[in-house]
Design brief:
With 99 residues, the chain is mostly beta strands. 5% of the residues lie in helices and 48% in strands. It has one domain. It contains one helix and five strands.
Length: 99
């Protein structure tokens, strides 16, 4: 495992060793409005992009956490801004190095 990084003296280190990713994934599209049938038949799924620390990856899900905070003692307290992507919807992922 790599060591935690400290970016400046007054900033605490990243408190975990997960890798940071940019993930392209496919999502549903829906529309409750009226549209021409030909237009409906040409509809495609949405291509989405999400970033974060990949905190879980298995056959069912990829879970990203984009934010976290520290408690008063400088330890990691909570994670936030999470995205749960079904693994079957992942198109491609890129590791962002240096964090």
């Amino acid at each position: 495992m790599t060591k935690s990084r400290t970016f400046k003296k007054d900033e605490p280190p990243i408190p975990f060793h997960y890798k940071f990713y940019l993930i392209y994934w496919e999502d549903i599209q829906s529309d409750s409005g009226w549209r021409d049938l030909k237009d409906i038949q040409e509809s495609k799924p949405a291509i989405c992009v999400s970033t974060g620390w990949l905190v879980k990856k298995d056959k069912k899900v990829h879970i990203l956490m984009s934010d976290y905070n520290y408690d008063e003692k400088g330890n990691m307290a909570d994670g936030g801004n999470t995205t749960v992507i079904p693994t079957k919807n992942v198109i491609r992922k890129y590791e962002i190095e240096g964090l």
